Amino acid sequence: MCTVHISLRRHRPAVRHNMNASLSTVEETTPQASNAFPDRTAQPFIKWVGGKRLHHEQFQSLYPDALYQHRYHTYAEPFLGGGAIFLSLTSHIPFERILLSDINPNLILTYRAVKQDVEALIGILEDYTQRYHGAAADEQAALYQDVRDAFNQPPEDFCYTECSTQSIERAAQFIFLNKCGYGGMFRVNKKGFFNVPWGKHKKPQILDELNLRHVSQLLQHAQLTVAGFREFPIEKMDDGCFVYFDPPYRPLNATSHFTGYYGPGFNDNDQRELAAIFRQLDAQGASLMLSNSDPTNEDPEDDFFDTLYDGFAIRRVSALRKINSNFAKRGRKNELVITNYPTRI
Predict the structure, then answer these.
(1) Which of 114, 117, 169, 249 has the most CB atoms lying inside 10 A of its own CB?
(2) Which residues pair with 198 in a beta bridge?
(3) Are the CB atoms for 87 and 46 separated by under 8 Å?
């Protein structure tokens, strides 16, 4: 289901193509930089609250036409998170340059480990899998606690930017905690310690070797940076760039304030600053797509984003929400997809 609210200031020239084409059919006519995994779409290797794993099919009709014609030399994603959109696109469409960033240094460290030494990472995750799956519940809880304690006590000289035995081990800890912790959350306390409790999962899939190798191959062409959205390289963006923004969602009410995995959160002033960057990139000719919550789910009169992104295409798409403190409020909700180009719906 998709309802549409459109207010475009201008339309870029659209490239004609088969409107029913999907990313997988595009792949058939495109020489790929990586072809070890034909006919496969790489999947996120971590769970991430707000991730876009389930949005892949919906988004295919919301991407710019030029994407399917390989008119972009650069793909950029400043809020990487679980990376579902990056993976779904680059599994089938080649880019000369891929810029991926996130403010969470542990997340970027883990992506770098997957990129730089996936086989060593797989070896450690295999060991975690055997130990966890072969243990009784109390032993699983103890293992989770041991890994969490180790994660919270990195060596004093630990370097987040270098690939080392220590960084690979930390990346494996990150993935293990993500798969075995409660709700796939990454949350730290005021002291910066990871404090998500054990999720009581009996046999979670800690490791998918084939997918992890596929992700590693796609990351070979990517530049990974620990950075907030304010450090996004605006000056490098032009009409050959496609940028996808998936910031922490604006809370719909007082009980939905899980807006950030790292740092002080993301408030309305941050949303306004991001909108200003969106407008600056639009002026430079880049093609832009942004996701956020739809305030009208709770208050039909709340026009925060309609005002903030006035002049751009604002579409409301139905999305499944699995996390809410009130179980009755889980389920399908509208979310916003904002673009600076015309789409097929």
Answers:
(1) 114
(2) 181
(3) no
Taking only the tens place, the pLDDT of each residue in 123-175 is 999 999 999 999 999 999 999 999 999 999 998 889 998 889 999 999 999 99
- Name the E strands within 144-286: 222-226, 241-245
Number of domains in the chain: 2
Residues 288 and 318 in one domain: yes
Asked if 165 and 155 touch (Cβ cutoff 8 Å), the reply is no
Task: Give the contacts of 167 (CB within 8 A, at least 6 positions apart).
Answer: 109, 112, 113, 158, 159, 160
The CATH number that applies at residue 85 is 3.40.50.150
**281 closest CA partner among 221, 241, 222:** 241
Which three-class secondary structure state does DSSP give residue 23? helix
pTM attached to this predicted model = 0.86
- Domain limits at 146? 110-184
Beta bridge partners of 76: 99, 243
82 in Cβ contact with 47 (< 8 Å): yes
Same domain assignment for residues 34 and 89? yes
Decide if 251 is inside a domain. yes
